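Case study 2.
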Amino acid sequence: MSERLPSSIYTSQIPGKGRGLFTSKEIDAGGSVFLVDRPLARYHKYECKILGQLSPKIAPSLVRVVMQLLLRRKANALSDSEWGDFLGLLDHSDDLKKDSSKGGIAHDRWQDVQLMSQAAHRYSGTTESPNLVLSMMARPDVPTTSKKGPSSAKMLEIEAEGERLQASVENATSVEKLKLLDQAMSLFVSYKDIFPIWRYPWPSIRDELRLLHWSLDNWSIATVHALKEYFFIEPVLYPVPWHPIRIQRLFVLLKLIYELQYQVFASDDNEVEGDLKSYYINWLSVNKGLEQEIEAAIPKAFGTDSSFAEEYKRLPKSEPPEHYGLRMDWPGERAKLRKAAEEIAD
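Prediction:
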């Protein structure tokens, strides 16, 4: 990998942890570390035919990425250097096998890894040894973009069904998309005792639902989805309060709430608020509270001279509640929003 990195970025061994990336110069908040023009995974053309054979089942994400690497290697589309980069990542298979003797979740996780490695080896048609494919499964979970946590066989089954439903919306109409995504959401809700709200692919399905309801002018429903992300998903996936992704999504929530209020006032119809109406929320206090959170985070998340900061400045801001004779109470209104996000069912 080192020959493809900028001169200011280098790799080095971390005792007991494997290799890490380091920089020799300061990086501004919100700045790019480096861009990868040709990522190691996500070359769908090599797996397309195989996934067709698996339909309607969709392989878990880790299986798909290992398959992609194996198929690219088989097609001579992965150089020795790139192959070596991946195999140079720390192999945790011995640790997983050792921990499995404790039983419980650790045992389930090891069983998952073994089953997934067998699937990747079989469906890719690779000539690499089964043991090597197993070790690939036990390297850092680099392909996943959402926090997953330990798996059980049932959780993998639910995950695969959720991915199948999500993939089905690609060429569907808005009405069909809504039906499929609602079906996927109901699936996860029915297993919420074992499938946390933040576990992949539930958050990405919720994100698609939020965008779809927004496009259909279902402001209240879209806002509730965004509130669930704000309170219960993003803090788990991105623990740092000023993480750029959290602040970008907070900006989306603010714009959604602006739009919700505009529709309420423009139509003089409080029913636009939907289920949120019963919580008697002072939206003007909410506006200012969210604005304050964004403004406090911008210097760390993006920098005061960033394009995000400029975009935020251009957004027309609402009047403070005091302008209308109302009291500003962000902590109180935030508690109402959290209660609504917790109580309003998916």
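Residues 106 and 167 are 30 Å apart (CA to CA).
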